[in-house]
Amino acid sequence: MSWLVTGGAGYIGAHVVRALAAAGLSPVVIDDLSSGHAGFVPAGVPFVHGTILNRGLVESTLREHDVDGVIHVAGFKYAGVSVQRPLHTYAQNVEGTRIVLEAMAAAGVTNIVFSSSAAVYGTPDVPLVTEDLPKRPASPYGESKLIGEWLIADQARATTDSDAPLRHTSLRYFNVVGSADPSVYDTSPHNLFPIVFEKLIAGETPRINGDDYDTPDGTNVRDYVHVGDIAAAHVVAAQRLAAGEPVEAAYNLGSQNGLSVKEIMDAMARVTGVSFTAEIGPRRPGDPDRIVATGELAARDLDWQMRYTVDEMVRTGWEARRAAPA
């Protein structure tokens, strides 16, 4: 059984590829390397260098490798930057998803796991985010992910009575951290863990944006989930789709409890051995006090678990970053 991973040379996608291979499923990767790295693709895994905006390339890849399903991870993932680049964001995330679905229909591929985002919820004012919470995305990125979910659901409805009905699920996740393979690490310039790691490597002091929020220690509380757990959930979702087992339209891959930015900083100092006291900067506009999601549905259906402590999240991410080529 073969599965195409779009964006499979990226931080999350490369972990999904490894998890698929470990489960005995044959991964195939397509990636334009705009943010991914060819070196993240394991030896022996077929790698197609190209964009998902090329419908012919996607379709030929699906046919050539006799693909059974798609795990659609590729996309432009920077919420803040999407405000300045909405057209680019929509082209990559909305048009890209439409083209993937079109190529799947032409090639007769009927299973898709969509990597969505907690950004579809915007800034909810409830203590625990559930899947049925109203969707109020606050950025073009969040909007594009929600539209991607709509596209997939619409295509599934349109093919319900056909010979090849589309089966699908969307996985909404939050702050993905750590590493499950020392050769793969987060290279995003916008995520907290790599920002802190680069500061520490450069001998600089990390900063916390605001310490006067309505939380126990005054800093934002967020879901931080390990990339190995995220990858494992994608594989179980793929297996359930391929087996014809029931799945929900969407699942939150949430931690249930969350961690504060100060707790992350304390773990960073503790695990890396680099002693520091984070600088306190001003709040960022629009940052809510707390966004944490339940993972109950995913635990029920996708064997979703938080298998890593905060120290293990930091340790695995730090070790992978330190092992990276200079």
Automatic annotation (TrEMBL):
Alphabetical list of InterPro entries matching this protein: Epimerase_deHydtase, NAD(P)-bd_dom_sf, UDP_G4E
NAD-dependent epimerase/dehydratase domain: residues covered: 3-254
Enzyme class, first EC level, given as a word: isomerase
The protein's required cofactors: NAD(+)
Reactions this protein catalyses: UDP-alpha-D-glucose = UDP-alpha-D-galactose
Keyword Cell wall biogenesis/degradation among record annotations: no
SUPFAM superfamilies according to UniProt: NAD(P)-binding Rossmann-fold domains (SSF51735)
EC number in record: 5.1.3.2
UniProt keywords, alphabetically: Carbohydrate metabolism, Isomerase, NAD
Pathway stated in the Swiss-Prot or TrEMBL entry: Carbohydrate metabolism; galactose metabolism
Family: Belongs to the NAD(P)-dependent epimerase/dehydratase family.
Protein name stated in the entry: UDP-glucose 4-epimerase
Taxonomy of the source species: Bacteria, Bacillati, Actinomycetota, Actinomycetes, Micrococcales
Encoding gene (name): galE
